[in-house]
Amino acid sequence: MTKLRLKRTPAEKEERARRKAYKAARKRSRQDQKHAEEEHDSSDSGGGRFTGAPNSKKRRTGDASSSYFDDEDYGPPPPPASSSYKPDYDAIRAEMEEMRFREKMCEALEDDERLDGINSRFNDYAHIPERWGRSHSKHDKHDTLDPQDMDDVEYAEWIREGMWRKKHAREYEEQAQRQAAQAAQKAHEKQIKAETARLEKAASQREERRRMDRQMRRKEEYRQIYEQRWKELLDPLAQEDPLLTFADIPWPLFTGQPLSSHRSSSDHVLTLTVEEITAEAVSAFLLSDIDSLLPTTPNSSEIKRDRDKLKETLLRFHPDKFEGRLMRRVLAGDKDRVKEAVGQVARVLNILMKGKS
């Protein structure tokens, strides 16, 4: 392939002549400097030395007698400075080479800029056909285009594509079938993923409901054990049990209930503390709504039922009533702890009663 040679414009000719003149001037300057350095190296360097008179007298300062002494008392005179100067030719040569290198780089950059400009001007008129810029598998656009809205190039491409489709009808049909099969497969996979996600979500919801049901049944069992224990303790006809411990008292808390309604101190060790007797814990055990402290809008029947439940529990844990009915049956070592817990329950119940008023 032959190299493309373009005719220079007048501005480019003028710039080229200016660069050539500049190069010639620089070359003459370097030659003159080189000749001057060679002549300077060949010339002999001369110098003189000034020495003082050997027998001259000098006066020593600071001497009280103001006497004169010879030059031997002061030592030999210093050597005189040389009048010849020898420049550092290596540094000068390195500097000149650096300057020449920079000039060549500037000229190369100018040439690159000129060639880049030419290349960009040629690329402005480049045209890439649409059939080269997109895949042949996307022919659906052919049927939706309107030839009246096309220019000459687009219309030619549209005609060429239509001719290819007619000439390769079988290939086009097979390609369309493959595309349809791929689309159907993707839709099927998407449907399977959606169905799998739905089933997983449904299974998770069922598991959550079962967990909540188990939790509610367990809470209901605790409430039944609580009521059964209080009936046994308050039944006047029932045979009195031996001395009661702190764990034998049915406290209005889920953590304060034994696993069965039968009293057995050896089977159940209660780790309840007074700090755990809070309004939230007692409300979750006694009332219908778990979070009774939050502002809600229950109906009148629920409010009445909750108030009745709180009153009943307050009568059981009232300090005076509890002292008269059960405190005498509590073990001596647990009386202080039971008394403190009963007082805490009574205070919490009063707070809940005020909230339901």
Automatic annotation (TrEMBL):
Residue spans of biased composition, Basic and acidic residues class: 186-215
Region of interest (Disordered), residue spans: 1-91, 175-215
Basic residues compositional bias, start-end: 18-29
GO terms for cellular component: nucleus
Subcellular location: Nucleus
The keyword Nucleus is assigned to this record: yes
Principal subcellular localization: nucleus
Any one biological process term the GO annotation gives: negative regulation of canonical NF-kappaB signal transduction
Keyword Phosphoprotein: yes
Keywords: ANK repeat, Nucleus, Phosphoprotein, Repeat
Protein name: Uncharacterized protein
Source organism per UniProt: Paxillus rubicundulus Ve08.2h10
